[in-house]
Write a structure and sequence with these properties.
This protein has 396 residues and is α+β, with helices and mostly antiparallel strands. It has 3 domains: 112 residues, DNA Polymerase III, Chain A, domain 2 (Roll), CATH 3.10.150.10; 147 residues, DNA Polymerase III, Chain A, domain 2 (Roll), CATH 3.10.150.10; 119 residues, Roll (DNA Polymerase III, Chain A, domain 2), CATH 3.10.150. 19% of the residues lie in helices and 42% in strands. It has 7 helices and 25 strands. Strands 13-10-11-12-25-24-23-17-21 form a 9-stranded antiparallel beta sheet. Strands 5-2-3-4-16-15-14-9 form an 8-stranded antiparallel beta sheet. Strands 1-6-7-8 form a 4-stranded antiparallel beta sheet. β24 and β25 form a beta hairpin. α1 runs antiparallel to α2, α4 crosses α5 and α6 packs antiparallel against α7. The chain is elongated, with a radius of gyration of 25 Å. The protein starts with a strand and ends in a 7-residue tail after the last strand.
Length: 396
């Protein structure tokens, strides 16, 4: 007799939605368009992958026997979402999934589970070469990811820059992203007492998914790194978000990813050690001014000029377009040092300011062609963020 598992429709729909995010929209290998379903003694496992990233969701459910089958992802998710709330019975055979809910009965043909790509690190979590770490501050980790993710490159000509540097030294976690025009560095002091060391480069898509999972699920995070594979696994389990009732029977989510191989840029050498002009501004006012200027900076350069005036304590932002006209905004600020006029890509400015996370932001500059440094003005000693942005080459 085929093993039967009973799951709530909301729970199954939520679990399938998670693993489907790892299923590629286009694939050369047909099995990649499938979700692997596995029944075991006390749980149901769902897995989706694009070969670079695996998402594995574990649901609490009683099964009569162990069984594995790869089922078309889009069809299964669409079907389950279309069913009414209530219990769904799943029966697995070697080639077919039978799904019963109320008066609805469906039979979905699947593929041999042995054709589905294996996730080796989940089978080797306890091996001697695997680094293990528990991060009990998911909020701090999520904020650090958000502060660097936007700066990762999308240019495949330098693959290493399409990832995020994950560097652990003792209790200090550093995340770094760069694309050749900007650099983001976020440092978080962890409360863990174990002294660990690790330096790997994780694909930005993986970190984006991790940030999404941390937002959806308030929990502690376990980290496994195996440099021999090389892969990294984020294991999310524990306390459940009370606002997400569909998580009631989801006991864990594993996010497994391949690591990027190569040497990351020496980011510390790119951060200026001094400045000639320093400005402290209200972050909200600066953001608002940049958003207005962005309406006029519609060319390929998206240029906004910043005029820093120490004598008057004003920062003047100007954006203009031959087709649209010109806009000027004056912001009160604490300006120390030499007066300076410098141009930035306004979209890059908006990204940096959205990542700051404090009421005030400091901008440090040497001249109109050297990198500008943006830092939050904060008294928090356990967190640190710095963003480096190259100015635009504006001809006189």
């Amino acid at each position: 007799m085929a093993p039967t598992v009973t799951v709530e429709q909301e729970v199954l729909a939520r679990a399938l939605a998670i693993v489907s995010r790892a299923v590629p929209p286009r694939f050369a290998w047909p099995v990649l368009g499938h979700i692997l379903i596995e029944t075991q003694a006390d749980h149901l496992l769902l897995t989706g992958t694009d070969l670079t990233m695996h998402l594995v969701v574990r649901l609490s459910a009683m099964a009569e026997a162990n069984k594995r089958l790869a089922v078309p992802a889009h069809l299964l998710l669409s079907l389950v979402k279309s069913l009414p709330k209530g219990k769904i019975n799943l029966e697995l055979t070697d080639r077919e999934l039978r799904l019963c809910s109320g008066r609805n009965e469906a039979k979905i043909r699947g593929q041999d589970a042995n054709e589905f790509p294996r996730c080796s690190i989940l089978e080797q979590e306890q091996c001697a070469s695997t680094l293990q770490l528990v991060i009990s501050q998911p909020d701090a980790l999520g904020q650090a990811i958000q502060q660097v993710l936007f700066a990762a490159s999308t240019n495949e000509s330098r693959p290493i820059l399409t990832g995020i540097l994950f560097r652990l030294e003792g209790d200090m976690l550093t995340l770094v992203a760069a694309d050749g025009f900007r650099l983001s560095v976020s440092r978080v002091q962890l409360s863990e007492t174990e002294q660990k060391e690790c330096e790997v480069v994780i694909p930005a898509a993986t970190m984006r998914e991790l940030k999404r999972l941390l937002t959806e699920r308030q929990t502690s995070v376990s980290l496994f790194v195996n440099a021999e594979v090389p892969q990294i696994c984020w294991h999310l389990a524990g306390a459940l978000d009370e606002d997400m009732p569909a998580y009631n029977s989801i006991t864990s989510v594993d996010l497994v990813s391949s690591l990027l191989v190569g040497k990351y840029v020496n980011y510390q050498a790119l951060i200026p050690k001094s400045y000639v002009t320093r400005v402290v501004l209200d972050t909200h006012a600066f953001l608002h001014a940049c958003r207005i200027c962005a309406l006029f900076a519609k060319s390929d350069m998206s240029l906004v000029m910043l005029e820093l005036m120490p004598d008057s304590g004003i920062v003047r932002l100007t954006a203009q377009s031959a087709e649209l006209g010109q806009n000027t905004v004056n912001i009160e600020a604490q300006v120390t040092g030499e007066p300076l006029s410098v141009g930035f890509n306004v979209q890059y400015l908006l990204d940096a300011l959205n990542a700051v996370g404090t009421e005030q932001v400091a901008m440090e500059l040497i001249n109109k062609v050297s990198p500008g440094v943006f830092r939050p003005v904060s008294l928090e000693k356990d967190k640190e963020f710095v963003h480096i942005l190259m100015p635009m080459d504006v001809r006189e």
